[in-house]
Design goal:
By secondary structure, the chain is α+β, with helices and mostly antiparallel strands. Helices cover about 20% and strands about 35% of the residues. The N terminus is likely disordered.
Length: about 675
């Protein structure tokens, strides 16, 4: 124990020294870390942020004896996947490698103590061909299939799940979803696969030979199941747009499904599965009961569909997820306060999580992703404003923490530090905003980055877009304005039907606070955002032509009345609950049309003074591309500077990393010109 502490001390006892291989350390609670130098190096070049991730997953075996790390050691063009196996008793010892070969690996988990499940993606190209009667050949089309491989941890043998069903493998692109690891059955897992008629089936699959047997058949709209002790007890059906799901439940042994509720998939979902309990017919879900402000973890009786009182609840904070051990036993709920926090069912775990936070300078979110049944060994995924993602093994009895892998190795001294601002709004409320300084922290221009949703929120986690902007020498502000999610329903309600005023005012008040507190250049401020954030960027340019020198709107809304008309036409669910959801959030055009028109940037394009860059996926199913096209046309008619970049074969800002890198270069160029 002493030798490990000395080794860590000799390596400056820093997190980055650990990442470089300094190893483990002891006495976490009493660790004292040296001050970092005040001076910062220059920001990283743009391409450094887009280096493909190396470590993709780290997982602890159910017994806690072994650790597996999934890594991509090739390139995007020439992928190469490997698994490194580590003995938990000697986490710094020799690693044993399983070479998966030239394949793109995506995710991994232990199916049992002896076998691992690895999700892989295989991209192929159809043959070029010519239509009948034509000599013009059409180019082949790329398509990607996903599969699950079962890999022997000792032998390294590889089995393709469903390999006894060759015709299914040939016709199905998506066979990469595991529903239940079946902890009580070490030879099988439950997986979904599409049937020949396009209906999803639930299958029990043998992890030793890949043989599969269907145990449940869904409806034409089924896309997922949840299980208790291997029996499907909750079914999720989805509408054709992928925006609303119907959740059904049944008790163990029952055949008939009962509707639990309909809930949104994308925008402010308010119901989610957490896990099993030891009592048959009782499961854990996260939900917000009628009249309650926050979403909490609670029990649900599958027979009566009655949802019990909260097991954990925090005022003004919605639950993020439930924490479980390797056997699926509930250990507590995750919330976001000053950082990621847990309310543990076992109080002894709280001290260990606090110690881990101190080890990372209280600068990172420490997610406990794997916990053995003895509550002794943990895998922690660590992310923060200057940490793009790293996995650590923690042994509480041995008092050892070891870095197992990291997504990207970026020098934190060349990344921007982030702090939390408490902003007093003009009407007396208080909101939070995150402000990232450029490396070195010198006063300079400011880029405002309102988040999407809007019932989402920003966190103090890794954000590549933020750090790319900070690397240019710019400050970056992310306000959690009223109308954001995560702070309870009352906070979200304060933004309902206030898209053009209160929510924008909160952004403007955050800008004034940041400029006044840090002496930033009020003459060089720009605004940029995606989805709702794109709308906020455009509306900000309308409201404050004196403030913003550039506006970048990615997949943003330009006309609220047109958007609501589109939602009404597209909502194919009974009773149109999605349209009704947006009438509460944005406003009903039949009731407040003049207010919606006044809050529509397209109808006020002539008031915008700064250059505008619009970016939109042509196949966007959330905000149609016509919103950006009409915004461009309105700005052109007003004689304003505007450019629209349409991204083909892309949806709601879901393009590949290469496309994002090219777009970020365009954003930086525009902002540089605006700040010149």
């Amino acid at each position: 124990m002493k030798s490990r502490f000395v080794a860590a001390t000799r390596a400056a006892v820093s997190r980055r020294a650990l990442l470089a291989g300094a190893g483990a350390l002891a006495g976490l609670a009493g660790l004292v870390r040296p001050d970092r130098a005040a001076a910062r190096a220059a920001g990283l070049p743009l391409e450094a942020f887009f280096v493909p991730a190396r470590t993709l997953a780290v997982s602890l075996s159910p017994s806690g004896r072994r650790i597996a790390a999934l890594e991509q050691i090739g390139t995007e063009a020439d992928p190469h996947g490997i698994i490194d196996l580590i003995e938990a008793d000697d986490p710094e010892g020799q690693r044993r490698r399983i070479d998966l070969g030239a394949i793109t690996v995506e995710a991994m988990e232990w199916a049992s103590d002896s076998r691992l499940l690895v999700r892989v993606a295989v991209t192929q190209t159809t043959d070029s061909r010519s239509a009948a009667g034509s000599n013009i050949r059409q180019q082949g089309v790329d398509y990607t299939s996903r599969r699950i491989l079962s890999v022997g941890a000792d032998s390294g043998d590889v089995v393709v799940m469903f390999q006894d069903q060759r015709s299914r493998l040939r016709r199905s692109l998506d066979m990469g979803r595991v529903v239940d690891l079946l902890p009580q059955d070490p030879d099988h897992v439950l997986m979904t696969a599409w049937e020949r008629d396009g209906v999803l089936g639930l299958h029990r699959v043998n992890i030793n030979d890949g043989a599969a047997e269907r145990i449940e058949r869904g409806t034409p709209s089924t896309y997922a199941w949840r299980t208790q002790n291997g029996w499907p007890v909750m079914r999720h059906d989805i509408n054709s747009r992928g925006t609303m799901e119907s959740v059904y439940a049944r008790g163990p042994g029952e055949s008939d499904w009962k509707l639990v509720r309909r809930t949104r998939v994308i925008d402010a979902p308010d119901f989610a599965w957490v896990g099993e309990t030891a009592r048959p017919g009782v499961v854990l879900v996260s939900a917000r009961a009628e009249g309650e402000d926050v979403e909490s973890v609670r029990e649900m009786d599958l027979g009566s569909l009655v949802v019990g009182p909260p097991l954990n609840s925090r005022p003004g904070r919605d639950v993020l997820y439930g924490l479980k051990d390797s056997a699926g036993l509930y250990l507590g709920a995750a919330y976001y306060g000053a950082r990621l926090e847990y309310d543990f069912t076992e109080l002894a775990l709280a001290g260990h999580h606090r110690a881990l936070n101190r080890f990372f300078d209280d600068e990172c979110d420490v997610h406990l992703t794997d916990i053995d049944v003895a509550r002794n060994r943990f895998i922690a995924f660590v992310t923060g404003p200057r940490e793009p993602g790293a996995w650590f093994f923690y042994d509480r009895d041995a008092r050892v923490i070891v870095n197992i892998g990291s997504a990207r190795d970026l020098d934190p001294d060349r990344l921007g530090e982030t702090g939390t601002l408490q902003v007093q709004t003009r009407d007396g409320a208080t909101i939070e905003a995150y402000l990232t300084a450029p490396p070195g922290g010198a006063p300079g221009p400011l880029v405002v980055l309102p988040h999407g949703g809007p019932e989402a929120r920003d966190l103090l986690e890794w954000d590549r877009q933020v750090q790319v902007l900070a690397a240019q020498g710019w400050w970056v502000l992310r306000p959690n304005f009223r109308g954001s999610g995560g702070y309870g329903l009352d906070f979200a309600r304060q933004g309902w039907t206030r898209w053009g005023d209160r929510m924008q005012e909160d952004v403007e008040d955050s800008v004034a606070r940041a400029i006044g507190l840090h002496g930033l250049d009020a003459g060089r401020v720009a605004i940029m955002g995606t989805s709702y954030g794109g709308y906020a960027a455009l509306m900000g340019a309308v409201r404050r032509p004196d403030l913003y020198k550039a506006a970048i709107a990615i997949c943003g809304v330009g006309d609220l009345v047109d958007m609501m008309d589109w939602e009404r036409r597209e909502d194919d669910t009974p009773g149109q609950p999605i349209y009704e959801f947006w009438t509460r959030r944005i406003g009903d055009p039949d009731v407040i049309r003049p207010a919606l028109e006044a809050a529509s940037p397209r109808l006020r394009a002539a008031e915008i003074a700064c250059p505008v860059l619009l970016v939109h996926g042509v196949e966007d199913p959330i905000v149609p591309v016509i919103q950006s096209r009409r915004m461009r046309d309105a700005l052109r008619r007003a004689g304003r500077s505007v450019e629209l970049i349409e991204v083909p074969d892309a949806g709601h800002a879901d393009w590949e990393a290469g496309q994002e890198q090219a777009l970020m270069a365009r954003y930086v160029d525009l902002l540089r010109q605006a700040f010149a």
